[in-house]
Amino acid sequence: MSSSLSAAADPAVEQQSSSSSSPPPICHLMSLPEELLSHVDSHLSVEDSFNFKLSNARIDNALSHNFHYYDQMHLSDEPEDCRIVDTRGRAPTRSFKADNAPIMLRMLPNLKDVTVIIKDVNMRGRHPQFPARTISDCTPYTPGGYLMLLLGEMPPEQMALRQLSLHIDIMVETLEDVFLQCPTEDLKYAMEKLSNARFNSFVQISICCAQIRPTDQNARNYLLQGMQYALKQSEDFGAKTEFVVEPCEGYVDMTVEKGNVEYTFAFFYYNPTICDPTPEEAPPTIPLITNYYI
């Protein structure tokens, strides 16, 4: 069956029915009681279930409420982690294609919690100034960010959510490789669209730099200036802000809170003595914010 949520029946079924004198498989399914149709459907992905319903009016009627029980969505850039869940155990957990998430937000009437985890954003070869059509094309610098891709122009009042969480990790070897700005696209979308929503929104973005080089200073200062500029703009819009600098740990973060939105962005150097300490290791020198210019 198709991996996209379309409004057409499976062409493979139509071709088989026209090219063979024997009854197509759908005719055999038609003789099944509704309980068995539900059992068959319970083993299908979201996309296959959707197309299964479209294949016949009786099947569509029998499965008319098969998506009503789901109240959690987990979206990731790793396909095996994309699923919808009924936390009360009334319906089986189903997998889905990440790029269908925007459509699913509109077809799951009782969805309460959405968690988005982007574990590995590769900035090389991306064109952040262009809108993204898929999750894999999106970055925190794409216009509107991940929130725009997921929610679009859907009014928040049309969503029955309790919580929306977005977690994004960016890993770079050196700051010389990718000259990064402070990511503010998801922040701007959240401040403009979601701060007065009836549900809570949490956005967490982090940039981890694997190598420390003395030549990082200009790129690092550029990133820090962007953070302070974003905080100043957020304050002008009435948000509560916080800026934390830990020079010895090679860590900086900022927090913005307004209404039901909380946004955090952190930049740090990978520190093996923290992530995987061993007794014989001595703490490395991390020249992060001993000198920076605003």
UniProtKB/TrEMBL annotation:
Query: Which InterPro entries does the entry link to?
Result: F-box_dom
Q: Quick one: where's region Disordered? A: 1-26
Domain named F-box: which ranges?
26-73
This chain belongs to the protein called F-box domain-containing protein
Natural source organism: Caenorhabditis bovis
